[in-house]
Every structure is written in structure tokens, then in C-alpha cells.
Write a structure and sequence with these properties.
about 220 residues, two-stranded antiparallel ribbon, alpha+beta, 7-stranded antiparallel β-sheet
Length: about 220
């Protein structure tokens, strides 16, 4: 199955990095990279993530995004999950971390429990600060790459573009029109499939919950 998977979103992201001043560090692929379904601390590796690792050994953009390295030197995806395993409460401990934002604890992870009939897992952004929660951002790994590519295109094509990153919209909060373009994700969101991650049982973070509800409303308005 892995060899049959195409990743147009990843190709778009790499093309965007060539078009705009986005430095991308790409690691060489490793023949020993885990394949689709390989357990990572008991969580099955997503098929699209396995397809990514069959082509790249890792990815780092100078605009915060990174995908954990997995090559002959380091098994970064295993290490990342080993680090969060003892720290994160459920239901976040059951996620599979594969990347994040550089110089922060924000992580990108797949949700094995929400895999579709092909085994493809949706992607969320995990905020582990104070009371943890996760935002759904893509219906699968390649749609995540596509969304981030569109985000970079949006930034660099803004009429009032500035090099000051503090003026840029934040991904994913500031670009609901990009996230909402993923219709499968929106269907899952409307059906409440992600509620256990956005509003985890026992959480008292009412302020954050209100912000999430407003964000969902913005997505649905799009």
C-alpha cells in the first residue's frame, strides 16, 4: 500500500519552499524506516506518514514546521513519543506525534482511533501547556502538508506582506478558510468526532473552550 500512496500535498509544500524564501532542510530516506501499521509504542504508523518516510528522512522548515527525523542516525518519531508518553494525560497519550513547531512544545500528531477504512489517520495540533487540548487540522497527513503549503502561499501573497513574523496569521487559528477547505475534516468535526480532544473530560479551561468554539464557528461560516 505504501508504494501506491501519492503525496501531492507534500510535493506542493516542497515546491512552495522553492518558490518563496523558505529554507527547507531535508534528510535522506532510510531503508529501515518503519512501514505502514508498524507499532510505535503501541500506536500503528499512519500509511501516509510511512510513505513520507520512504521518501524523506525528515523535514525542517525555517518557519517553525518540522517532521521528526527517522534515518540511520536517529529514530526521531520514536524518541518524540517516548518523551510525551509519561507526560501527557489521556486521551492525548494515545496520539502518535510526528512533528511540531520548532522552539515550542506544540506538536502535530495523528489520531489512530479515528483512522478511516484505509487506515488513514487525521491530524491534530496538540497544545500541552496548562490544560492540554488538540485542534483538528487535517483529515490525513498529506492534507496537512497541503494545508501548510497553502498557509505559506497565503502569507507570501498577502498585499501587505511584511518580514515581521509577528504580523502573520497563526497556523491554524488564523487561517480558518484553509482548514475548512478539507471537507472530510469538516464532516468529522460537525459529527463531534474530535470533541474528546478539543474538550477533554475534566478540563476546566473554559476560556480556551470558548476560543475553540469561536474557531469552529469561523470554520463552519467558511
Amino acid at each position: 500500500m505504501m508504494n501506491e500512496i501519492v503525496l501531492p500535498g507534500l510535493e506542493r509544500l516542497l515546491t512552495v519552499c522553492e518558490k518563496y524564501p523558505v529554507r527547507a532542510e531535508i534528510r535522506k530516506p532510510w531503508r529501515g524506516a518503519p512501514t505502514a501499521g508498524t507499532p510505535i509504542l503501541g500506536r500503528p504508523l499512519d500509511p501516509m506518514l510511512a510513505a513520507f518516510y520512504s521518501r524523506l528522512g525528515g523535514l525542517l522548515l525555517d518557519l517553525n514546521l518540522y517532521v521528526n527525523a527517522c534515518d540511520e542516525q536517529v529514530n526521531g518519531i520514536l524518541r518524540a513519543n517516548e518523551e510525551v508518553q509519561p507526560c501527557w494525560p489521556e486521551p492525548f497519550r494515545s496520539l502518535l506525534v510526528f512533528g511540531g513547531q520548532d522552539a515550542s512544545s506544540y506538536s502535530y500528531a495523528t489520531v489512530p482511533s479515528l483512522a478511516d477504512e484505509q487506515g488513514l489517520q487525521p491530524v491534530v495540533e496538540v497544545d500541552p501547556y496548562e490544560e492540554a487540548y488538540a485542534l483538528p487540522i487535517a483529515s490525513n497527513v498529506d492534507r496537512f502538508f497541503d494545508a501548510y503549503a497553502r498557509y505559506l502561499e497565503f502569507i507570501y501573497e498577502m498585499p501587505d506582506f511584511s518580514e515581521d513574523r509577528g504580523t502573520w496569521p497563526v497556523f491554524p487559528w488564523g487561517v480558518p478558510e484553509i482548514i475548512a477547505a478539507d471537507r472530510k475534516l469538516m464532516g468529522m468535526l460537525v459529527d463531534g468526532r474530535f470533541d474528546f480532544l478539543m474538550f477533554p473530560p475534566g478540563s476546566q479551561a473554559t476560556g480556551v473552550h470558548e476560543e475553540i468554539r469561536e474557531w469552529i464557528a469561523a470554520l463552519r461560516a467558511v
